[in-house]
Design brief:
Layout: E1 2-7, H1 11-28, E2 35-40, H2 52-61, E3 68-69
Parallel strand pairs: 1-2, 2-3
């Protein structure tokens, strides 16, 4: 499986999930390879720049069904 991690306090990190990392995974791994996308720094609400809505839109566009945020 593949774990892709992005920082909730870094918009560029979030943008690279779809614009770089998932593209790389899709080119390099079999279609059935499990993919997990994880958000870090969920405990730092004052520095958060990636909204829950941003994540929801991304997950819906990629047909991902679950999100997980870590501190």
């Amino acid at each position: 499986g593949v774990i892709i991690v992005f920082d909730l306090a870094n918009k560029k990190s979030f943008a690279k999930v779809e614009g770089h990392w998932l593209d790389l995974v899709n080119r390099s791994c079999a279609e059935q390879t499990p993919r997990l996308v994880v958000a870090t720094h969920a405990d730092q609400a004052d520095s958060r720049v990636v909204s829950s809505e941003d994540i929801k839109v991304l997950f819906l566009s990629l047909s991902l069904s679950l999100s997980l945020s870590l501190s």
